Queue: 4 jobs
Job 1
Amino acid sequence: MSEVIFKPHEGAQTLSLSVSDTYETLYGGARGGGKTMCGLAWLLRDTESPKYRALVIRRNAEDLADWVDRARAMYPHAKVTGKPATITFPSGAVIRCGHLKDENAYEKYQGHEYHRIVIEELTQIPNEESYLKLISSCRSTVEGLNPRVFCTANPGGKGHQWVKNRFIDGHTPMKSFKDDVSGRKRIYIPATIDDNPTLINLDPDYVKYLESLPEPLRSAWRFGDWDVFAGQYFIEWNPNVHVIDEKKAIELGYEDSLNRRYMGIDWGFANPFCALWCQVTHKNTVFFYDELYGTERHPVQWAEMIWAKSKNQEINQIFGDPSMWARNPMSWKNPATQSYTDKSIADAFTTYLPNLVPANNSRIIGWQNMSQMMHFDTKTLPKFFIIKGKCPNLERTLPNMVRDDKNPEDLDTTTEDHAVDACRYALTHILAPTQKRLKEPVLQQQINKLMMPEPEDETVYDWNNI
């Protein structure tokens, strides 16, 4: 009588193993939902075919080693060889393993054919383009072997937002939906530790550990809440507060005649270029109201586009990426002559934008400044707003920013940070972080309190109805 190595629990695990008409499955959300074991079982389908080929991707070699150890137990009759491991079944079916630490990790499988791909910790992949490169090798020329992708993830990480957008936002959990372009189906199957009674029975203290975590970890790891995630840099960002329509902006002083206008520019050619326009009230409230964003345009082309957008406006100052002032004979090609020049990129801009100056590139001070301006509570309005629909890439990428693993005070530069860099360049020169006030002696505090006038009624902001 053969030993039962794994039996899926009713609910999320059973559903994930029974889905047969979807190209992409995202399983998980919370910690302890049995994601790895489910992925191991999911790979077993079709292993009786000698032509079956599958690929398993994990973040690094250490995580991959842990997965291989579990695979040895799950596949006792298979042979495991090599580093990264190759798992060969008696039928001749093969599962190959790989990790994402290599520089060419996302491209090296292109041209291969894998009928099934498992990607663990999907949110560690920084952008959707890299993910699409990986799954481009999930295809089949073998009749009866249909290509499928199985991903696991927890909220958080560099790729949190694109994973949320691709699988979760606007879709019903546990119900497949079609991609608008490819027509292929996707599904998100949420799972928590409650879906894994084996873990609860063997380690009941793990549930208590998850319950004891501080927010936002508790919401993310215990319940798989995708609306919050650990590691997010701008933790006070709230699109319901900071993204407003023009009518509300006017109420807050957007059309004040004393307003000053500024711009921030982050240079890019292959990487995205971003220019942002902002307006600052006499109360130092900042409204970002326009944007240019794109790739593969020469400096003169961007300068002309900015000039065209700004010609009816009085821009007080334009703050540019300091790298634009570097001089390199191969830095840019003049589109008129099709020849390279030894001028700096900034030289091409200043013909059209004479008030362009290098921005302060102090990253950490800049991020702290932005965070401070986003702060709000029931008695305080933020000083930072985006006019709805006017700066789509700033609005899209700002909440995705995560902390650098090695320097938590800074942003992770592998994310799509071009719009937030342009934002930082502008804001660093408009406002500076407030200084902490020194604590006064107790006697002086008492004197100040006695001399303080009666307070007026304070406004209490209802952020659900602002």
Job 2
Amino acid sequence: MLLKKGSIGQEVSYWQKFLVEKGFLNDSVDGIFGKNTEDATKAWQTANGLVPDGEVGNNSFRKAKEQGYKHSPEANWYPPRPDFSSPTQ
């Protein structure tokens, strides 16, 4: 999954809420990844030692999850879960 300028939807709302809670976004949570969300993402990335590209990919999601980021259960996370049952089952 990749969130970037132009992305819309529930996952963007979750990301915006995270940025608001961390003090990086002073805007409404509207589910639209616009310039303010991009700028806030870059500021958060810089503060967390990530490349400030304004896009939320695997590295940003990983770091955000360490900080309590909650995402939608429908999100497509990389890597995908294996398509076989556990050897203990």
Job 3
Amino acid sequence: MEPDGGDESALAVAGPSADLHPPEDAGREDMPIATGDVVIGGDRPVTLRIPEGYAGESLPLVLGLHGYTGNGEQLDAYFGLSRRVDDRRFFLVSPPGTEEPAGGNPFWNATDACCNFRGSRVDDVAYLTGLIDEASALVSVDPARVYAVGHSNGGFMSYRLACDAADRIAALVSLAGATHDDEADCAASEPGSVLQIHGTDDVVIRYAGGTIGPSAYPGAEETVRRWALRAGCTGDPVPGESFDLVRTLPGADTDPASYDEGCAEGIGATLWTIQSGSHGPLFQPDYADRILDFLFAHPKL
């Protein structure tokens, strides 16, 4: 399904058959090995995108994680990250989830709520950290600038990755995802920066939180609050100036708010609330640059 146009409320209530994807310094002396796009990932192959003219410098790596029933190509078409690889100078992989049995929907084994509906034992954290290792063996990935970006099930997976591999992920962006409902399930060994983007009219993954089948997930505000607390932030999030993020909504549709007191050095915990926004908003052309700006401003220190 494509991102929403004029009617942004058409998605069904979430469940096993619901549609949860949108319809867009010097390197090491032994680097680089690869100077053009290469395929990594073994039996779940994905193309490692390498900026044009790459000459061995240490660059960020971005993992783009698709939604339930989707794929990496759809996520990239929706977010537009590959179109920024050359100008913004970063490596990109948009890997595939696992298909459900008998040719079923692709999914990530993220949290209890979303979206391992068939009880798979696949270890997607191991797969994704393996991709980081493979990429790092071919090009000079800056270990302080490895990031995850996801939509819906991919947003849930971004949080799972930041929980289980906190030492590998500097920051994440989640559109319409959520962290674990049970905070005890997040074993993050260190804080990380998060940007949660969520529409108030999302009927698939509710802004205020909800359930998918028997399993609950926290709302957008609670998700960011938990990661802010993990970073030692205090007080309430501070509102920023509203801006126009969605093409089909009038005016300044998105309200940002960030925790800025007491946070661990270099950590950001931010929520962009899209007023009347749906599960798959049709974004302005600068969407990719906005989320990359957040990520690149939050390396591991």
Job 4
Amino acid sequence: NLNFFNLNNNSHWSIDLSKISSLRLLLGKNKPIPNSSFIDYLSILKFLFVNRHRTVSEIIGGSNIFSTLWDPLTIGVMNTSSNYASAKVLSNVLKKTVLRGDKYCYIYQPKINWNKTLIQPTINFLNNHGCRVQYKSMLRKIDVLDNAVTRLYFTNQVVDVLKNEIVVLSIPPSNLQKLLPQYTFPSSYNSIVNVHYKLNRNLKKKFKHSIIGFIESNTQWIFIKKNHISITISNANYLNSYNTEEIATLVWKEVCKYLNLKIGIPDYQVVKEKKATVVQSPKNFDIVEKIKNLPNNLRISGDWTQSDLPCTIEGSILSGRKAVT
């Protein structure tokens, strides 16, 4: 089950993923959100056919469950407010998840962390296949001749590119703009903030669920780990000017309200990524689709290069596969 807490009215509810399906929702067999009716869930039908230039709020902003379902879902999936997020991309996500049944709706987490789950295995794979991973070697310049990349200038070396070699750039659009100024790339971003609190065993036991979704709050997701909890706040540009103490205090007050306890703030760490993703708006997806006529031997990859999927780990992996096939 996914468990939720509405900070505004202190209500708790849960969603049984095994019972989530578009048919059950439309037939009124499952109404996971308090004070909702099956009619409210008919709004999912609006995502079956959407214009690629529309935003989520334009499609679904008048729904009775907009603030408790559609907007939090959009922010969680796309790191973008419903006022700007592409309805077409969210539609694609719904078609790959809810509209296909409960087997496609589960949340997967690393057993320990992403480093041990994805990053280190990838590095090991590359090393075992003769690829060298070099650090502290930033790409500064690219030479293009006769519509082909011919030379790469790094901080500590220059690499000549042979005619039969392919160059794959997996870097954010802000960096890519400096290397390829003749092209237009997305230039607006949204932040993601994570706050980690170290907890003793007794306090950790107060959390009855391993994942908790917060509604109408700054906190959006709490993940219970071995000796700490991790909080995620997406679409967090409004927190860019806050210092770490202000953020940690703001979020901890909400955690205390969930626990219905007054507890002094424990040791914490705040991680703020100001350019976590591009703003996933129809405008930015249009910009991505218009990136044409790249040098013949150049490929670009990264979550932002997908124009039909959100900026996620899955999108990154698929973009990499597309770049090399």
